[in-house]
Design goal:
elongated; alpha+beta; 19% strand; 5 strands; five-stranded antiparallel β-sheet; 2 domains
Length: 190
């Protein structure tokens, strides 16, 4: 068998492997890409919760710290439709009351000024679940992600060798490969 025939067969198999693995793992690539973008911008977007902050002044003054009972807190929470989500309250300062609600939401009241800050947390079900994959949620996921990583290597190698000539590895493709390697190295070293 001639060298040229061997190279042609390798390129043919590379296209098949590249295509099939790319289709098989395209969903995984999209999931990692979208959740990766969210993870990169955690300082701007919380991947697990949507946070809504509401500042307001109490319509009715609360009793002094020593006289506040659970019933007073529940009455206050009813104005926010949160009375059924009460877990507990405490006083971190002499004139500050903090109320904890189910699901992580909370209410902080300044008893001296009657100003309140309500922080409502709403879970981001889809994005929050997808970002958990970055934290290796279990043994089976480790196996699958190892197979995924090996497949990405195969997709890359087959992509580099399936084209020949000026668009292949010894032409424009090789230049793009070098630039693609250089950019992350610049971020590492500079």
């Amino acid at each position: 068998m001639k060298l040229n025939d061997i190279a042609t067969k390798i390129r043919k198999w590379s296209r098949t492997i590249h295509r099939d693995l790319s289709f098989f793992f395209s969903g995984m690539i999209l999931i990692y890409a979208v959740s990766g973008i969210v993870m990169n911008h955690r300082n701007v977007i919380n991947p697990n919760y949507s946070v809504e902050v509401k500042n307001f002044v109490l319509e009715k003054e609360l009793p002094a710290k020593d006289f506040i009972k659970k019933e007073h807190v529940l009455s206050l929470l009813s104005t926010l439709d949160e009375e059924n989500n009460y877990t507990k309250h405490y006083f971190p300062g002499e004139s500050t009351m903090k109320v904890f609600l189910k699901g992580g939401s909370n209410l902080v009241v300044d008893l001296s000024s009657n100003k309140a800050v309500y922080e409502k947390l709403t879970p981001r079900i889809v994005i929050g679940t997808l970002t958990k994959l970055h934290y290796n949620p279990g043994r089976w996921w480790t196996y699958f992600s190892d197979i995924f990583a090996i497949s990405l290597i195969l997709i890359t190698i087959t992509g580099m060798i399936m084209n020949k000539g000026p668009k292949g590895l010894w032409g424009r493709g090789g230049v793009e490969l070098i630039v693609g390697i250089a950019i992350p190295l610049l971020f590492i070293f500079f």
